[in-house]
Amino acid sequence: MSPSGPESRTVGTTGPALATVTVRYWAAARAAAGVDSEARTGATVGEVVDAAVADHPDLARVARVASFLLDGRKVGREARVTDGGTVEVLPPFAGG
Q: CA–CA separation, 12 vs 33, rounded Å?
């Protein structure tokens, strides 16, 4: 007889699925990262940007004040990314 009840079940918990996206850097973000674009993996825009900052420490000061686009739409750090998407890091621009 097999056990029943919640204590006998093994339930795996998994976090959000990771996706591979292209990160494009603009202006000061490009200068800080040292590249125009690169592939990154994460579940959210924030995770993707944090991974980029870990590899490009000079990017930290820009990322704190940057805006982010996900597939052309302005989003916050909590936005979920999907495979093949594009995250753009846009530092504040001066001008008028």
A: 37
Give the 3-state secondary structure of residue 22. strand
pLDDT in tens, 43-95: 999 999 999 999 999 999 999 999 999 999 999 999 999 999 999 999 998 55
In sequence order, the 6+-apart residues with CB closer than 8 A to the CB of 11 are none
Q: Which tokens belong to 16?
A: 């959000």
Q: What is the number of other CB atoms lying within 10 angstroms of the CB of residue 2?
A: 4
In this predicted structure, what is the pLDDT of residue 14? 57
Closest CA to 23 of 62, 81, 79: 81
Full strand arrangement of the beta sheet holding 37-42? 37-42, 19-25, 86-90, 67-70, 73-75
- For residues 36 and 24, the answer to whether their CB atoms sit within 8 Å is yes
